[in-house]
Design brief:
The complex is a heterodimer of chains A (about 220) and B (about 1100). With about 220 residues, chain A is mostly helical. Chain A has one domain. Helix content of chain A is about 70%, strand content about 0%. In chain A, helix 4 packs parallel to helix 7. Chain A is globular and about 50 Å long. With about 1100 residues, chain B is mostly helical. In chain B, about 60% of the residues lie in helices and about 5% in strands. Chain B contains 42 helices and 12 strands. An 8-stranded mixed β-sheet of chain B has the order 6-5-7-2-8-9-3-10, sandwiched between helices. Chain B has a two-stranded parallel sheet with strand order 1-4. The longest helix of chain B is centred in the last third of the chain and has 44 residues. The C terminus of chain B is likely disordered. Chains A and B meet through loops of A and helix 22, helix 23 and helix 25 of B.
Chain lengths: ~220, ~1100
């Protein structure tokens, strides 16, 4: 049981990491002048879109989020709508938080919002996929005894890694090195993506390492 | 409650920190007094008997001089090696120097030119114009402008009527304002710009030279230096730049006339990475090249040539060659090869012989030494008297030689040279060398002090029980080591330097204390839990150090090591504080304490401890916590708009609130700012009173309550009026100008007096407890009590009941002999009601902070009032967050009575102090000090310096003072807030639980109270001290950094001064708490009849 879940997780994460990689490489082939620094926003959106698409597809196929009960189409539609609204709200929330952390208020609002979209697609989207549009459950997951399955633990780790990565990414901005990656929000989005990739690797490894100590209660 | 040990320990810790800081600074900050005297032509008259007449009128050897200063012209750049076939980019690029020296040896010479540290351009320009050894702090120099006040070459040229034309680096313009006949400054700030300054000079240099309206021409090229900073010396750009300079020198030499001296020199060298500022040979060794179309050097190059010319020597040489007096404070010696050895040389008009030049020089140096030693005592007395004797001997010899008309004596010249060299070396040892030993000792003392502080905070309980290392043994050790050090010095050198004794004493104390702590911890460990100690090892401690609060502290400390972060410090601190604050709810949620636990199967299984609070209480506390986090974040965000700007921050607009109102042109805007300031101050006053009233502290008739009730509003009125008066434009209300002048004088002074009175009152009568007995209730209560009870809902009677139930019965009996049971309030209540007892400790402290805050706001520009309001709100939010977190995590109840304050709030508190240092418009640079604060209430200036200095310091470190004084609130606030948590739902009066004891809980456990107070203070001191330690490290490690005198050294000074004031204000706060404790004890004593005194033992 453990092995199967971990294996599923590893393959899922491999697909996600590959999608990030492809989102970086493929447009570079087709679009002239595409680069991570030069056309940062398009890279950012391409990564967001890729991660969004892949996570939705993978988690839908795996069927983690959905309880096995059959629901009416209307219920599913309303659920989808709520997911979209939550996605958007989360973008605004992240935008707000990043502003509070000291991002420029007006002049690069688009960049800030793009970063918020990226953070949302790396963190909130996963919550949506795993837990559904249920804020109570999200808050519960991020507590010591809140994880109820391997996927919850995995969610904790990846989300924490992504956010810490974005946080750490802000450190080089004040330095006077004049590098292209110090421009707002390049370092933060790079930090978030690197943190996300780290999380993708770290989560299965950690779970595998601690599989003896992990116990989950059922709902 | 043990007051004395707490204070003693804290004082000791502070003293150790300060000793460390003092030691480091005495080795790092070289201080020199400026002598504000100038040499005159009469000074350099020849000795009696010779009829030379006025020195300045005599024909000098050169009428004109051209000074080409090539910034950072290292000696390696100037040398030419024909055998080097593959030169590096910086080698062999100035062939003109070598060519000239070899072709015309009597016209030119090239020497290494050794600068003195600090090798920064401004200090160097000072150095080679005054001939002295400028230090970082030239006392007498006013910080606001950097103009040179000491006697210098430019000044002397001006006095003799020589026209000085300057072009190049605009530093000169700020050093010598209005001293030049003509000046063409170019901006030097942008290090990346290699060409602006040089091209600007080149546009004007040649035309100026051909035109005749100058006697001295100074051209300061910056390209080489900027190229070094940007690319390093080993870069093709450097080759281009040096080649360009080669061309410049050639062209200048072609245009020289016979009566003109050319000096090409570098002001300092550079390291291999292109930086400078320190004392390594690569940085100090520049090049100097002297040339004149007429013969310059009487003798051929010989063995007697100096290997290296010290930079100070340029001043007397140039002065004597150009016929001006040597500047007063110069300690250089003339460059002998330039002077003929036998009297006035053949064919050279008006020249001095070597001996004469040396004599004039020695006389001037001796005069300077006499003046300086009269002003300051930093040159050792024995050396000074030696030098004096030497000079009198030399002068006798010289007079004999001149009188006897003996031709010359090489011995005498050599003796004079030796004398001058010795003077210079003495001065350099005093002013220009970092004392590495003292710096290292200071670092060691400071580092150990941090460790000791940490130990004290961790062992506070043991220390208070008297089991830890006492103060006596370490003090004895300190005395002993100090004595040993003094004896060793006496034996070794014959004199005692107090600094080294201090080092020995501090180290001895710290080591003895730490040793004692280690031993007693071992004992405690052994007695407590052997298994735990065995299992622990180093792992958990490392793990704890990596916990988020410590990582934030570590990040903060590391940010002090980088100039970029110091420049962006205001935002960096805000960022870290925000992260730390957001960590609190995340952490609580992770522990599962933020949300009320649902019907949880785990709890039933015993996996979770049962919740100490009811779900509704948890929900309310969490709501309060999140609300406070939101408020705090809002404050942080808003505070960003009050920051000032450093000059290093290019595109930065200083906050519009920093300008005083009178400077605002727009009437409407001014009114808006005024209204905003008044509202903020009003809100500040209102919130304070509201808080005190809420807890029932305003009812008492004591001094503190008087302050809160009357003096605080009065201060408010004073400030508002003062702002209004000072904001009036000068030209309006002309007929009222006298009145306005009077008001400008009277209002702030009244405020100062009231402030002083308030502080005295709070100190004398800090108790804000209102006792109401039955008999007085109807008559003497100044305000209707039921109103307060309704709003407070505190249960004073329950407190007392809980505290001293038995005493109550006695008092009841003793106080109401004739009990009126028919009274409306009687129903089962005890007879004594004490309002505000629950906040007896925090109320005076809060009041002190509030009053101090208003006083400090008076010293700030009016626009800062909203920032102060933010400070109040933010500290309130921090306290609430801490209190909510404590009650949510149930620490109060589970850990039996431990009042200890965790690290997170302490670190946030300290970060908030730094944050508001910036958010009140201050910056760690000397130029940003708000000097106008010295004139608040003293518009016509001061007589002494102590008062304005105090005012400026209070203004600059206002936030450190407020947060330092308020620090004990972190201990008290959870107790103050506790009542809300346990009181179920209603805010109305009534249902007081037995728990509502608030701060009287502290009196139940005096031991734990004092240990918690000690721990909190030690933690705060540790957090502040570690920051000082890291900025000291930054200054020590990066003392060769380009930015050391611009960023790190000022930062260190500000951090150290801030720490000093933090210490002082923290001690003030702690002392006030202890004072209140004494007052409360006395109050209880008075309350309890004599017969019951014996029962008080259990309190």
């Amino acid at each position: 049981m453990w092995d199967r879940e971990i294996r599923a997780m590893v393959s899922t994460h491999a697909i996600m990491a590959a999608s990030v990689f492809m989102a970086t490489v493929v447009p570079a082939v087709f679009l002239p002048g595409f680069s991570v620094y030069g056309t940062h926003l398009s890279w950012l959106y391409s990564v967001s879109a890729a991660v969004t698409g892949v996570s939705v597809a993978v988690f839908w196929l795996l069927g983690i989020a959905q309880p096995t009960k059959k629901h009416s189409l209307g219920y599913k539609l309303s659920r989808l709508c709520r997911c979209c609204v939550y996605f958007f709200l989360s973008c605004i929330f992240f935008h707000f938080v990043v502003l509070l952390y000291g991002a420029p208020l007006v002049e690069s609002a688009l960049e800030t919002f793009s970063l918020a979209v990226l953070l949302t697609s790396l963190t909130t989207l996963r919550c949506l996929c795993v837990l559904g549009p249920n804020v109570q459950a999200w808050i519960r997951v991020f507590s010591r005894h809140g994880a109820m399955s391997v996927w919850d633990t995995c969610l904790q780790i990846t989300v924490a890694c992504t956010l810490v990565g974005a946080w750490v990414g802000a450190f080089p901005i004040p330095l006077d090195w004049d590098r292209p990656w110090q421009v707002w929000p390049v370092s933060c989005s790079l930090g978030a993506v690197i943190g996300f990739l780290t999380g993708l690797v770290a989560a299965p490894a950690w779970i595998h390492h601690h599989r003896k100590h992990l116990t989950y209660k059922s709902k | 409650m043990k007051a004395l040990p707490v204070l003693c320990l804290l004082l000791w810790v502070c003293a150790l920190y300060l000793a460390g800081i003092y030691l480091f600074l005495s080795g790092f900050l070289l201080v020199r007094l400026e002598v504000n005297r100038t040499s005159t032509c009469g000074d350099v008259l020849q000795p009696a008997g010779e009829e030379h007449g006025d020195f300045c009128r005599a024909q000098p050897r050169f009428r004109r001089a051209v000074l080409l200063i090539i910034d950072a012209l290292k000696i390696d750049f100037a040398r030419f090696d024909p055998n080097n076939t593959t030169p590096r980019p910086y080698e062999n690029k100035l062939p003109v120097l070598e060519e000239t020296v070899s072709v015309r040896p009597s016209h030119s010479r090239l020497y290494p030119f050794r600068a003195d540290p600090p090798t920064t351009t401004m200090q160097r320009i000072k150095g080679f114009t005054t001939g002295s050894l400028p230090t970082f702090v030239d006392v007498g120099n006013n910080f606001a402008s950097s103009a040179i006040l000491e006697d210098n070459l430019i000044h002397q040229f001006g006095r003799v009527g020589k026209r000085v034309v300057f072009m190049g680096d605009d530093t000169w313009e700020s050093l010598f304002p209005k001293s030049f006949h003509r000046s063409l400054p170019f901006p030097s700030f942008n290090v990346k710009d290699l060409h602006t300054v040089d091209n600007g000079i080149l546009q004007h240099l040649y035309t100026t030279m051909v035109g005749g309206d100058w006697e001295v021409l100074v051209a300061h090229f910056l390209g080489v230096d900027h190229c070094g900073h940007r690319f390093g010396p080993d870069h093709p750009a450097m080759a281009d730049k040096l080649t360009q300079m080669d061309g410049v020198i050639r062209s200048v030499m072609e245009r020289l006339q016979n009566d003109t001296l050319l000096v090409v020199m570098g002001d300092h060298g550079m390291t291999d990475s292109g930086d400078h500022g320190g004392e390594s040979q690569k940085e100090t060794d520049a090049a100097i090249f002297l040339y004149s179309p007429s013969p310059l050097f009487p003798a051929r190059p010989s063995r007697a040539e100096p290997d290296v010319v010290p930079q100070t020597d340029l001043v007397p040489t140039l002065a004597l060659l150009l016929g001006v007096p040597i500047p007063y404070s110069s300690v250089g010696q003339v460059l002998l090869p330039l002077f003929p050895s036998h009297g006035p040389a053949e064919g050279v008009a008006g020249g001095l012989s070597q001996l004469d030049a040396l004599w004039i020089n020695a006389k001037q140096v001796n005069r300077f030494l006499e003046t300086y030693s009269g002003m300051a005592a930093d040159i050792p007395a024995d050396i000074l008297s030696d030098l004096k004797e030497e000079f009198s001997r030399l002068s006798a010899d010289y007079l004999a030689a001149v009188g006897g008309a003996r031709s010359s004596s090489p011995q005498l010249a050599a003796a004079m040279q030796a004398y001058l060299t010795r003077v210079r070396d003495t001065c350099r040892a005093t002013w220009a060398q970092f004392s590495a030993g003292k710096m290292a000792a200071g670092l060691a003392v400071l580092g150990l002090a941090c460790l000791l502080c940490l130990t004290v905070s961790e062992m506070s309980a043991t220390l208070m029980r008297g089991e830890g290392p006492g103060l006596k043994r370490p003090a004895a050790a300190a005395l002993m080591t100090a004595g040993c050090a003094a004896a060793a010095q006496l034996l070794g050198r014959g004199s005692v330097e107090a600094a080294w004794c201090l080092v020995a004493a501090a180290l001895g104390f710290e080591l003895a204390f730490l040793w004692g702590a280690r031993q007693s911890r071992g004992i405690v460990m052994a007695t407590k839990s052997v298994s735990k100690a065995n299992k622990g090892g180093a792992w958990p401690r490392l793990h704890r150090l990596l916990a988020p609060p410590f990582s934030v502290l570590l990040l903060r400390c590391c940010s002090l090591l980088s100039d970029s972060y110091v420049i962006a410090e205001g935002r960096a601190v805000t960022f870290l504080l925000l992260s730390l604050v957001l960590y609190v709810p995340v952490r609580l949620n992770w522990e599962g304490l933020l949300l009320p636990p649902g019907p949880d199967p785990l709890k039933a299984a015993g996996l979770l401890p049962s919740a100490p609070l009811s779900p509704s209480a948890v929900r309310r506390e969490s709501g309060a916590l999140l609300g406070c986090v939101g408020l705090l974040i809002g404050c942080l965000f808003a505070s960003l708009s009050f920051h000032g700007c450093r000059e290093e921050q290019g595109a930065c607009q200083p906050s519009p609130f920093l300008a005083p109102l009178s400077r605002l042109q727009d009437n409407q805007l001014r009114n808006l700012h005024y209204v905003l300031a008044v509202c903020s101050l009003g809100l500040w006053t209102y919130l304070l009173r509201r808080c005190l009233r809420h807890y029932g502290n305003l009812n008492s008739s004591g001094g503190a309550a008087f302050v809160a009730r009357w003096l605080l509003p009065f201060l408010f009125t004073c400030l508002v009026l003062h702002w209004a008066v000072s904001a009036t434009p000068e030209d309006s209300f002309r007929n009222l100008s006298e009145l306005i002048g009077l008001a400008q004088l009277a209002l702030p002074r009244t405020a100062y007096c009231v402030l002083g009175l308030a502080l005295v009152l709070i100190w004398v009568d800090p108790l804000t407890v209102f006792v109401k007995t039955k008999s007085t209730a109807s008559g003497s209560a100044p305000l209707p009590p039921p109103r307060y009870r309704a709003s407070t809902g505190i249960s004073p009677q329950a407190e007392l009941h809980h505290l001293i139930p038995q005493l109550y019965q006695r008092m009841r009996r003793s106080l109401d002999d004739g009990e009126q049971s028919g009274s409306s309030e009687a129903g089962g209540r005890p007879t004594v009601e004490a309002y505000g007892l629950g906040t007896a400790y925090s109320a005076p402290l809060l009041l002190l902070c509030g009053v101090l805050g208003v006083g400090l706001l008076l010293l700030h520009p009016e626009g800062m009032a909203p920032s102060f309001l933010l400070l109040l709100l933010e500290s309130g939010a921090l306290l609430h967050i801490h209190a909510s977190a404590v009650s949510l995590s149930g620490r109060q109840r589970t850990q039996a009575g431990g009042f200890s304050v965790p690290w997170t709030p302490v670190i946030s508190w300290s970060l908030a102090a730094s944050q508001f240092f910036h958010a009140t418009g201050h910056l760690p640079t000397f130029t940003s000090i708000q000097w106008s604060s010295a004139f608040v209430g003293f518009p016509d200036g001061h007589v002494g310096t102590a008062l304005p200095a105090t005012l400026v310091i209070l203004n600059t470190f206002a936030s450190y003072i407020l947060f330092g004084v308020g620090c004990p609130l972190l201990l008290l606030w959870p107790l103050v807030r506790e009542v809300h948590g346990s009181r179920g739902g209603g805010r109305a009066c009534g249902d007081e639980g037995e728990d509502a004891v608030m701060e009287m809980r502290l009196r139940e456990k005096p031991q734990q109270f004092s240990s918690a107070l000690l721990q909190l203070s030690a933690r705060y001191l540790f957090v502040q001290g570690v920051q000082v330690f890291f900025s000291v490290c930054a200054a020590a490690v990066l003392r060769r950094h380009l930015m050391v005198w611009k960023v790190f050294a000022p930062k260190l000074m500000f951090e150290a001064s801030g720490f000093l004031l933090s210490c002082a204000s923290l001690l003030l706060g702690v002392t006030l708490v202890l004072r209140v404790d004494v007052a409360v004890s006395r109050w209880f004593k008075r309350l309890v009849p004599d017969g019951a005194r014996s029962k008080r033992t259990h309190l």
